[in-house]
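Progress report, Aim 2. The chain analyzed during this reporting quarter is listed below.
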Amino acid sequence: MAEPGDSALATGAEALESFALEACELGVSLSFRAPSAVRKLLGCVLSGWADAPIPDADPTIRVSAGPRFALGSAHYVPARDYSDPVALLNELLIAMAHGVKAQRPDLVLLHGAAFEDPAGAQVVFGEKKAGKSVMTADRAARGALIYADDILLWSPKAMTFAGLGMSPRLRRPVAETILERLGRRSFIAGQHTCYLAAGALRLAPAGRSFAADRVFDLRPRDGMRPVRFYNVRTRIAQHRIC
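Predicted structure tokens for the chain:
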């Protein structure tokens, strides 16, 4: 794995820069004021996001320079700051998801995973630590198209789901079967968590919509259990973030 010390974020304070990213399929653009290494790190874990003109308005998301990184946003602020850049990355992606929601109030943010394999497009709901990310990484290692491992978009009007183009995050240590299939160099490692590099898997671009062929509940002891079609809306309501 690429260790935290390999990242420029871990070298201490550095100058801040302004940049913007847009997800064309979602029709949104987010602006940032952050260390340049944050921009590089985002580039390693995103799909369907491209550089965009920097607006004159205040940035959507701010990240202070290290050695401890504090994140600020009008839509989401984590409870603390971080010395581990990969832990910061998780909060940064959550802030981006809330920024998308602010610009697309017609969409709903959900806790859920989704992938597409020969059996079709599948959505998996589960509580925190139910194993959604491990399941998603395992499917990625088997060649599935990945939409999301934790945060998913739902369009009530179109009745379709979409991913945010964000790579799966895993707690360390990663299962040997996943490491062997994907290769150790496919991961960006932090102290306690790691991310799959976007180029190491089939990651759907942000905003790529799909209709679910099957929906599941994932429970730590029971595994994946199918959700009957008349209960899908209930599951969506139960796992709604905003």
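Residues 50 and 59 are 16 Å apart (CA to CA). The radius of gyration is 17 Å. These observations will guide the mutagenesis work planned for the next reporting period.
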